[in-house]
Amino acid sequence: MIATIQPSVLCNTVQAPASKSAMQRACAAALICGGKSIIYNPGHSNDDKAALQVIAALGAKVNTRDDGGIETDSSGTDLSSPGTPQSTLTINCGESGLGIRMFAPVMALSRLPVTINGEGSLLSRPMDFFDEILPRLNVTVSSNKGRLPITLSGPLQPRNIEIDGSLSSQFLTGLLMAYAAAEARDVTIKVNNLKSRPYIDLTFKVMQAFGLKIPENKNYKAFYFDQSPAHLSPSGIRYTVEGDWSGGAFLLVAGAIAGNIEVCGLDPDSAQADKKIVEALRDAGAGIDTGDKGIRLFPGALKAFTFDATDCPDLFPPLVALAAYCSGTTVIKGVSRLAHKESNRGLTLQDEFSKMGLRVDLQDDIMHVHGGKGLKGTTVHSRHDHRIAMACAVAALRAEGATTIEEAEAINKSYPDFYEDLIKLGANVKIKQQSVHIQ
Description:
The chain contains twelve helices and 24 strands. It is of the alpha/beta class. The chain folds into two domains: 2-17 and 243-432, Enolpyruvate transferase domain (UDP-n-acetylglucosamine1-carboxyvinyl-transferase, Chain), CATH 3.65.10; 20-224, UDP-n-acetylglucosamine1-carboxyvinyl-transferase, Chain. The strands form six sheets. It has a four-stranded mixed β-sheet with strand order 22-23-1-24. Strands 2-15-17-16 form a four-stranded mixed β-sheet. A four-stranded mixed β-sheet has the order 4-5-3-14, with helices on one face. Helix 1 (20-32) runs parallel beside helix 2 (46-57), helix 1 packs across helix 6 (197-209) and helix 7 packs parallel to helix 9 (316-323). The chain is globular.
């Protein structure tokens, strides 16, 4: 798919998409809780669909209700034997990094072999932590030299363990879920150099909503499961997925650079790390008003800012789009968190935005964005990375001339309605399906 964006002036109101971070965690919690649940405002991105397919493959019943909610029933699910003794269960996590890191420890509760595979960039992303950590928990791991596919055979046994949290908090989320499911008692998970702490807060918030046991958080350096019962095993849970600050960040930046808009459905009290986009917008001098109904954005005199994105690395793409229109040099910290995303995002942002005339320098863990000189419309490529596609689309709203994004369908991974929402706001966006030539 090719998306062409003309310079546009925005106005109108739009609803933020559902949080795929919360949605995927809710799917895992619904599987583990051992009862019936209804998930309202469910996401429908590719990652969300993959999470629903995973829990169905592991034994949960999943149905779509007439009101749009997702009903799950895991009351008859036995995570210790989700497959059959005669054959290895194979589960596809799609292209979701959170999905595979979170669900792998849960799948390792099985005493029968489970093979995990994925698609796209997930096939090349490192999975070494499975090889390093899971064998310490009584899990046999067979991997493709640290890459997919991997086969796990447990059952996982909760034990005192120490892990490195510098690469991602997502594997810790999976361990916390698996320990809760395995009724862990009097065991501690120690974590060194944990990144993205707000995402662990989100994990606990979702676990609590589904009645799962929450460990004692010892300053994010250790998580202790005490001697109390593992979880409440409630039934009839009703959970509403909150708006997505990661996707909403692109809408907010679009308003800051291209028009007067209002974005609804974003909770200022959310545990999502990416709500820090509001701080960046204010530091950049954007016109922003947070009200009861939504967040209003209007263009202001944008200036360079300094921002630490170590705990919210998904903000890098919208921050670069914002910084492109800020006079001066913007400094963003946390580049080391970008190497193992859908693309190497630091280099990809540098390459694709350079086509639009923006200079982006990378030095160790720091990104310097030399903005305020305007962008030119041109042809860019998503690199099959949803956030790159969205960042280029937002930046194109004030570029000189049209911008064409190749492989623009990458947005389906997290925000399939993105272009439609830009159009609702008044953006001039044309979508064309790419032709496939077979020789």
